[in-house]
Amino acid sequence: MPELPEVQTVVNHIRPMIIGKRLTTIRPIWEKTLHNFNVEDIDRIKPNNQIIDVYRRAKFIIIKLMDHIIAIHLRMTGKLYVSEKKIDPKYATAVLEFEDKGSLIFEDVRKFGRIYLYDDMKIIDSRHGPEPLDKNFTVELFKNMIKRRNRNIKALLLDQSFLSGLGNIYVDESLWKSGIHPNSNSSSIPQKKVSMLHRNIQSILNDAIVKKGTTIIDFSVNGRSGEYANDLNVYGRNERSCFKCDLKVIKLKVAGRGTYVCTKCQKRYK
């Protein structure tokens, strides 16, 4: 599933191409793609259909109209890109059509991705925690958040209501770089390590955005794959030597997810 850097990469790509355009309709090719609305709902908002902003919140791509927002979640295999072709691609599940030439194609091989229509951001904000790259996400805030929880640290970091945008790849990378075992108890992690984790989450996410995300299966933007896969230190490196020591990385199941860890470099705090 695309995580924060991949979603931000998509936003960075489509934003300059669709801001200012007027949306005429969203044409579903697979009906379930439109999760909480239908085409008639789009017809009713046409008087205020200009796109005034495009941004990311958690793992959602937010297209802001004058009085509404369209929220798109890519899920496992979703892709979103601008096209001027009149023929729908094979795996397209919905098409956002504009008044002028061009459209925004939502392509999704496995059909898990969804499009939502809301009046504002209240519903999404109520279900998601702070943004890890926001200026208000300070180390002190993070320390307080961690201190108040008594949970498995990997499960906690994957919890979107706790912290937005992180997924399996960047949680594993951040914990490895911070020397924290993913099976650690969150409230037992020393404050110094929590500070390190805060710093590493931000630096890893920023680096991944610069390199347009990580391609593990089929993530790409405009046909180009993300390049951060070349910088992964632990994720996917099962039975290969840890970059910090000579021990082999192992794969565990933590919080129901395949998890990569160096048991020598990552201490388990109980």
Defining key terms:
270 residues, 4-stranded antiparallel beta sheet, Helicase, Ruva Protein, domain 3, elongated, 12 strands, alpha+beta, 7 helices, N-terminal domain of MutM-like DNA repair proteins, 2 domains
Mind sketching the topology for me?
Blueprint: H1 4-18, E1 23-28, H2 39-44, E2 53-57, E3 60-64, E4 69-73, E5 78-83, E6 92-98, E7 103-108, E8 114-118, H3 122-126, H4 139-147, H5 153-158, H6 168-178, H7 191-210, E9 220-221, E10 224-225, E11 250-254, E12 257-261
Description of the structure:
By secondary structure, this protein is of the alpha+beta class. It has 7 helices and 12 strands. It has 2 domains: 4-126, MutM-like, N-terminal (N-terminal domain of MutM-like DNA repair proteins), CATH 3.20.190.10; 139-261, Orthogonal Bundle (Helicase, Ruva Protein, domain 3), CATH 1.10.8.50. It has helices at 4-18, 39-44, 122-126, 139-147, 153-158, 168-178, 191-210, and strands spanning 23-28, 53-57, 60-64, 69-73, 78-83, 92-98, 103-108, 114-118, 220-221, 224-225, 250-254, 257-261. The strands form 4 sheets. Strands 1-6-7-5 form a 4-stranded antiparallel beta sheet. A 4-stranded antiparallel beta sheet has the order 2-3-4-8. A two-stranded antiparallel sheet has the order 9-10. Helix 4 crosses helix 7 (191-210). The two termini are 30 Å apart. The model has no long low-confidence stretch (mean pLDDT 93).
